[in-house]
């Protein structure tokens, strides 16, 4: 008897298939690959007829709302204290903190932009070390292009004149300091 007759039926088919090398493509898989190749040629940046990139008029605009949204999570390093006595801090803008933002200057050159902002902000309401910041920062933006989405992102933030001031800490709401509530009157003491 041969060894192959002792193997289960599934194993026999596997062993028999290993002897024959066969590569087949089904029609749907061939059409899918052709479709992917055809669509990949249309995913580049738009260009004019002579092969140069399209004009800056097709670039998405950097709006005030976009600046207010994308400044969140941006970090500015080396923010000195207003009084000069404390050491410099690094500040990350938070969505929860109130901000007043004024655009001082805006320069857009192709897919890069430099925007100078005058910002006044304070720490989020429940911050451990409440601070107030005011001054100007320079933000550098770059247009990021994906498969179907083109959007501006802040790639660098540099301090120009922003300084911080420590605010007084809010009083702690400590429930251990208040006297205990008197016990409620019981029904048995009225008899």
Compact overview of the structure:
With 191 residues, this protein is α+β, with helices and mostly antiparallel strands.
Tell me about this structure.
- It is built from 3 helices and 7 strands.
- By secondary structure, the protein is of the alpha+beta class.
- The longest helix has 14 residues, at 27-40.
- The strands form 2 sheets. Strands 3, 4, 5, 6 and 7 form a 5-stranded antiparallel beta sheet that branches. It has a two-stranded antiparallel sheet with strand order 1-2.
- The protein is flat and about 85 Å long.
- A hairpin with a 2-residue loop joins strand 3 (99-109) and strand 4 (112-122).
- Shape annotation: flat
What is the rounded distance between the termini? 103 Å
Question: Structural class of the secondary elements?
Answer: alpha+beta
Q: Beta-sheet strand percentage?
A: 25-35%
Question: What is the radius of gyration?
Answer: 33 Å
* Helix content percent band: 10-25%
What is the total tally of β strands?
7
In sequence order, what are the helices and strands, one letter per element? HHHEEEEEEE
Major sheet description: 5 strands, antiparallel
Tally of individual helices: 3
- What is the mean predicted local confidence, pLDDT? 76
Poorly predicted spans = 47-56
């Amino acid at each position: 008897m041969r060894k192959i007759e002792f193997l289960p039926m599934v194993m026999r088919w596997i062993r028999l298939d290993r002897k024959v090398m066969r590569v087949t493509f089904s029609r749907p898989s061939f059409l899918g690959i052709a479709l992917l190749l055809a669509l990949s040629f249309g995913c580049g940046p738009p260009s004019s007829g002579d092969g140069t990139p399209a004009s800056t008029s097709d670039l998405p605009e950097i709006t005030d709302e976009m600046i207010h949204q994308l400044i969140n999570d941006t970090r500015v390093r080396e923010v000195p204290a207003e009084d000069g006595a404390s050491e410099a801090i690094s500040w990350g803008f938070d969505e929860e903190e109130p901000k007043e933002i004024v655009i001082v200057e805006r320069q857009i050159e192709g897919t890069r932009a430099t925007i100078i902002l005058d910002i006044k902000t304070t720490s989020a309401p429940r911050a451990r070390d409440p601070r107030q910041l005011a001054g100007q920062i320079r933000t550098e933006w770059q247009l990021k292009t994906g498969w179907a989405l083109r959007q501006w992102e802040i790639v660098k933030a540099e301090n120009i004149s922003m300084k911080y001031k420590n605010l007084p800490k809010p009083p702690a709401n400590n429930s251990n300091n208040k006297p205990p509530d008197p016990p409620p009157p019981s029904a048995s003491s009225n008899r």
